Sequence to fold (173 residues):
Amino acid sequence: MDIREFLQIDSSRLNAEILVDKIEEDPEVFETVWEIMLEDTYPLSMRASRVIWLFAIKHPYYLEPRLPEIISILPGIKTESVWRNLLNMISLLSIPSAHTGSLFNLCYGLVESPTTAIAVKANAMTILYNISNIEPELKIELITLFESQRDTESAAIFARSEILLKKLYKEVK
Fold:
């Protein structure tokens, strides 16, 4: 199966799941899909990143060794859907303390920026919350950040803020 040609067919969930099954059968397929994702060309990279994300849902441990690479490539990614899927992947992973600082700064900047896409911002908020479970002293700072997002953003960001704030308020008492 030519992976690139298969990704060109369409972006259906079924096709993505077929590739996830292929990755489970042959790890080399993962490498091919990963490389297509890194090309950062729409729509193939978007479709490839979705496949990787769906694979990560089933096998998050497989992506954990790639976390430093994911963090380092994020700032250079131009395709919004690739950003969204990479952040979704990160939200599934255990974040080693060695990477919490750089990831916190990146996600904090995404949440603060008025130009960040809604889904990217929501995923960044989840990652920030996950980091605060590793670094509890950040919880107060996140409360302030998430409170500031409630009135200035979309309904989706308002809802994500409310969910995370409810957890944070309980945890800081």
